[in-house]
Amino acid sequence: MTLSKFFKTLSALTIGSAIFLAPTLALSQSAPDKEGKAILARQGYMKLVVWEAGPLFGMAKGAMAYDADVAKARAANLKAISQYPVENLFLPGTSNEARPGKTRALASIWKDSAGVANAFKQWRSAIDGVVDAAGNGQSELAAAVGALGKSCGTCHKPFRAKAS
Ligand code: HEC
To answer: What is the pTM of this model?
Structure first.
């Protein structure tokens, strides 16, 4: 191999590996670790809860016309979502003390697991209440959705930091 051919091969290799390595480097800088992914996943889960519950809250408040079919469909979706074991996304090391600025999960979650379990239990039974009431007219729906809203607060108060 001539010297110039050698350098051509060398620079081709360098460019080749740079192209190959660049995405790896970018990934290692921006991708969250396991704990970070769990935080994003549970926040996404809560967003999904709100997405489905939004129209139910709207109908309960009278901000949106009551529609039995829509109410039943949204309630069924909430029920499906509530069957997912979201508790598992609260990994150790994912409180707002461990990950400041990334999460609003208070450290109390890991100190009072019975309290958290109870809050999830209440929330799930409030969703059952919404499923039962959804097709029975606006006022029954409103009462059940009121109980659901309370169950969100019952958990958020002791276990979620206020928005900064
Ligand atoms: C048993 C506990 C619990 C229940 C029940 C609960 N939440 Fe949450 N919620 C949390 C915690 C903890 C966070 C903070 C998660 C984080 O930042 O890592 C949160 C975060 C949220 C967020 C912010 C999500 C984001 O974008 O970061 C919304 C919105 C929310 N909850 C809405 C609701 C609504 C609406 C209900 C009731 C229908 C509800 N939650 C029921 C514990 C609960």
So the answer is: 0.85
